[in-house]
Records
---
Amino acid sequence: MNFHVGAPAVKIAVCIKRTPDSESRFRIAASGAAIDEAGLKFDMDDFAGYAVEAALQLNEKAGGGETVVYALGPDSVQESLRKAMSMGADRAVQLKTDTVPADGIAVAKALAAELKSGGFDLILFGKHAFDSSAGVVGTAVAELLGLPGVTAASQLSVAGGKGAARRELEGAAELVEFPLPAIVTIDEGVARPRYPSLKGIMAAKKKPLESKPAQLGPVRVTVQRAELPPERPAGRILGEGAAAVPELVRLLQTEAKVL
Amino acid sequence: MANVLVFAETRGGDVRKVALEAVTAARALADATGGGEVHAILAGPAGVASRAQQLGQYGADLVLVAESPALAQFARESLAATVADRTKAGAYRAVVLGFSAQGRDLGPRVAARLDAPIASDVTEISAAGDRMTVKHPGYANKVMLTLSITGSPVVLSVRPSAFTAKESPRNARVETLQLSPAGGATVTVTQVVEGAKGRPDLGEASIIVSGGRGLKAAENFKLIEDLADAFGNAAVGATRAVTDDGWRPHSDQIGQTGRQVSPQLYVAVGISGAIQHLAGMRTSKTIVAINKDKEAPIFKVADYGIVGDVLEVVPALTAAVKDARKGH
């Protein structure tokens, strides 16, 4: 990631989500419409972590500024907000709901209503969250607030009231510029999140965490069913070394029919 | 009876494969809801209008052509406004686009502008009355979610390769569509950096050859390139470990945090099969694994496995594939 030293301090909001550890073995809940959360480890989503780190680096290089983290959801999201503050964010806001709906526009409306008057130069999101894997909220907030929005930036820099970013396209990349204030959703590659230091963890306990009700829009998208994908049938080891190649080619021709 | 609007993505003046898949998905949805029409927005620089009948070939009844020099680059705000304005004017049941780099950006914009519900990256669509039901792989492909959506219109982005583009020819009517202004501050494209030429994109390739740390050194990726060449029009992918080490560009990464692919054939070379990687390729139709460790998890998902030194096996496979293709 690339910053222009001496740039004026910026006020940055980062919207994070709390999601289960992606390496987990998932089971389906009795309702059939959700995963079984028992025994799962939850943490700040991976892409949200990149966004928090990007914000912190921006403010550290520029000096001054403020990083405020937001999360929508039940009280369990406070743990992720504290983590972001232990990494270095200055304060946190919980937009309280019982559950996080599958309707990205409903969530975007709640965040847009809250962020509208925050006076932020930059609002960052992860490019999507692991659980919903949808990538709607950040870019929708940009539209709702009428701000320039960059979806899935793999590089980001800010200087002189302007931002610049890189986006990976299929087989190409796009370099873009935009005026601040703006919204950027962060892809992997921008910044590897730091581990909170002990000092950071202690400091985070004293940082302000505000909780207020979320103004969700109407929820029109719901999860009706959750299923584990069918296991792939057990494969065959055809043999060892180059000697197995003819058999592989034969199967690719006659069975898989891809040659 | 309900009409469906498609945003048919173009690049370099050509209609992208994912656009034809979106038209196919829209055609099926219109037919299933009483035989409405499919209208497709075809937007690009001058000359793109010549592609209109290609959309008719796949089932569009009306092609709305917007040509503008501004569309030489991805004019995201203006395109989103154009799609949203047309949707309002036409009373559509759904707006369908591809879940591509462009579609990921446009979908949420259009939904926000219309205050419409959106489902991303869908692999199946069905509609009954005022309820639409879609399938969407969540949790990085580990949990299949069935989403129920109320309200109309609905914005749907379709996963590349999930819907097979199918011809449904008709003589499409063609109309000119005026681009809507962006309104407000915008993102400006300053440069497009083209990737390696001559290979299909990972999301569009029917064959992918992918390499991991088992290749031992960056220069051995040449073996992967050679095997991809032997197959003909194959794409080249890599694991996160390999892109983190800088052997390959970040954009080649297949996995949970990289690209998610479903080709007809996926050849995993020197890839152990970490969960992170499997999340990106386990939906491939046929998987081949070549790895020296017979206990590697990749063999649990591979249809065909060869245990051995990749530096020995891959050149042999490359030669054999070349021979096999010559025989055709």
---
Amino acid sequence: MSDMMDDMEEGGEGVVKKFMFVNRKAPHGTIYALEGLEVVLVSAAFDQDVSLVFVDDGVYELIKGVNTKGIEVKDFSKAYRALEGYDVEKLYVEKASMDARGLTEGDLIVDVTVLDSAEMANLMAEQDVVISY
Amino acid sequence: MKIGIMVSEGPYNHQASDTAYLFARNAIEKGHSVPRVFFYHDGVNNSTKLTQPPQDDRNVVSRWSKLAEEHGVDLVVCIAAGMRRGITDDILAPGFRISGLGQLVEAGIQCDRLVTFGD
Amino acid sequence: MLHIVNKSATERNSLESALRMATKGSAVLLIEDAVYAATQGSVAAAKIQSAMADVQIYALGPDLDARGMSSRVLDGVKVVDYGGFVDLVTEHNCCQSWL
């Protein structure tokens, strides 16, 4: 391992950063939603202040009534419900993104906080690390 | 400043890996450090030594290897994403190593900035 | 906050989303195919121009050059090289890539 990595190992203990994961892609058409979820689950083990946001086509990740049997792909939408068990409880959805897709909170598989675009912008601006797909 | 990088797309198909590399090289030239580049999604395909680009083209994979060798950049390939795509230890180019997603989160915690390059 | 956009605004909505969520005083950097939005006569030009009241727009010069667009850059858009890209990342507390 390099010296730089040794440097990086120092002082990392106890640091709590605001991590935001930005989901902007619909599920199944590409792998980003699934692999994005995998990062979120791992991040839970690091005791960081994690927020998950769903904007643009990302809101489709949370839709109820999914049946993936016909495309022979794993249905990972249930996993969003398990996030609570990992202490990932801050889920935010942008209202404009839902509106643009004819969706309401009742269409979603988990409880979320709905934010308008300005609120979402402010939340984003508060973060230390933003990871997006 | 310590700048971590995530690369989410493979070489050649998207510009992401080129932009990430040029960003990393320039950051180092400006006196910053790039402790780690994490390769995720199809980005894991940047790590295979089996690539053979035409001679008149840049070699995206060996460029990363050179950066690792000369500047100690830790090139980490996500194990879960890599296994999905057939990336194993025996085909890794020099400087790359396979590890878990925790390495990405750790880079986010320990670096001053984390920049994502993808599609 | 530095918002990084890399997709053509005539192909994807990432520029629009970035501008919608860029708070006053933040910066938007256009790289790769996103640089076309910062050029005269593009349909995205009006969006860029109205956004410039609140945010500073940057475009990556080598990407403009590679696309033959350097002479068409909109007034008010600051062109930076990769070193300038690095400076933008370090000058802002955080960055978000609108992939």
